[in-house]
Amino acid sequence: MPRPPGTPEDRSADRSAHLNALRGLIANKDAIDSAVARVRKAAKGYSDEELCRFARLIILSEHSPSEWRQRQVNQIRNREEALEEIAMSIDPSWLPTEIEEDVFIDELRNEVIRSYPNPDRVGCPEESALRRVVFGEINEYPDSDAIMQHSMKCGPCTRQVAVFVKEKSRKRASA
Fold this sequence. Notes:
Elements: H1 8-26, H2 29-42, H3 48-62, H4 67-75, H5 79-90, H6 98-115, H7 127-135, H8 144-151, H9 155-174
Helix pairs in contact: 1-6, 2-5, 3-4, 3-5, 6-9, 7-9
């Protein structure tokens, strides 16, 4: 039996479809697949363990220490996952263009704001903490990851982060 439009399940399905479409903007899957195919040919003589170790090393060397980085390292469990990480690190053709990236960020921000209104500001960090995290280096502060995780599930914090990011961009452009 079809669900009536506007039910929570309907909105959840709409959000999932929308987020899947956004993922398509942020990374060109065809380019990733092509790069993986090239790396797969070159990696025939390497064991699964060697490839996994190499992929983990790439993650550890390209990203600042954080919970996210550790999750990425832990996700490399087999040859295919290792090949994809290696391919993405050596072939940047999968990266979105600047315009695609801007569209993705705008759509993602708007989706978070719509999906997580949080009118009572439950669990929100102080505005100064958001500012500190946005204007600091990635994971410069011990609470950076937790603050950014919260802001991805809170419309008001996402909106404030967007304001700070624009302010930071303007300051960089004028420097």
